Amino acid sequence: MVKNMFSRIDLSSFITGSTEHTWQPTMSSETNIPSYWLNWRFFLCAIFVLTSLFLSSFLIWRYEGPRKRKKHGDDTDDDDQSLELEQLTGVVYDDETWNTCVKDVHPNWLLGFRVFGFFVLLGLISGNAIADGTGIFIFYTQWTFTLVTVYFGLAALVSIYRFKYADDGESGVNVVDEEEQGSYRPPLNVFKSSNGHDRDNRTTRQIATTLGYIHQILFQTCAGAVLLTDGVFWFIIYPFLTAKDFSLDFFIVIMHSVNAIFLLGETFLNSLRFPLFRIAYFVVWTSIFVLFQWIVHACVSFWWPYPFLDLSSPYAPLWYAAVGVMHIPCFGIFALIVKLKYIWLSR
């Protein structure tokens, strides 16, 4: 969320024992001893994290992807017509991964934006690593910035693939009859072809490939993580906790702004939906970061990148719970942005 909650620190120098900085975070206790972990605080935090992972896994299992069931009153097992799609919120359609949400905006503009975004983000995260060392990747901020970079790279590949093979056959891709789409209809012009013109008499939509699903999942994971890192930094950490301890520099500002700018630009251009159940992936992403921190600190004793991760505090379970609850408004705000976009475009 911020390079740390106290000061601008070159992690590589600090870990190697450099004293060139005027302030360094202090450790409350050794983290690689059994007594640090074998206590009620860690037990409660572990229950919270593992429960969150379990509930997230259940949501993913329950709603992700297209599922079919028999129509009511039909006992025929072999009749394909007796099957209907359910859990439509978990379906990702191929055209959603590369198309724009506005008829007048050609999909190639989205392709160009994704390619441009990927190279800019890649250059920035690489520059940050060169300037401050690879130790920056101990922070959630750099994890998230890297994830957004990966998203733009994958999104660019999806758009390039569609641009290159738009005129080729569609064999090997599942389709869904329009009658089976339930109440869902894409907001605007989703049957637009790759050359920008509407397709007439289109009765089926292609279900996205595995790559398309990964693309959608990364998009929604990035959305929540970016709001969590940037929002918490600019509205909580910087004004209330760190303004007296350090001045903003180039990479601090960049790491907490550019990712959000590019992701919002992507959101305003693409035609991806934003099902709420995919908050599960956002929770899984943060949980992986927490488990990584636990493993590292159990092996090597050094300071925590964020003080609220420190398990020596008697308030640690409350901090973990509070940060966990913050995932809901962060994800919800981005879902609202997407909703408002489609409401505005439908006028």
From TrEMBL:
Residue ranges crossing the lipid bilayer per the database entry: 40-61, 111-131, 137-161, 217-238, 250-269, 281-306, 318-338
UniProt keyword annotation of Membrane present: yes
Record keywords, A-Z: Membrane, Transmembrane, Transmembrane helix
The keyword tRNA-binding is assigned to this record: no
Identification of the protein by name: Uncharacterized protein LOC104712597 isoform X1
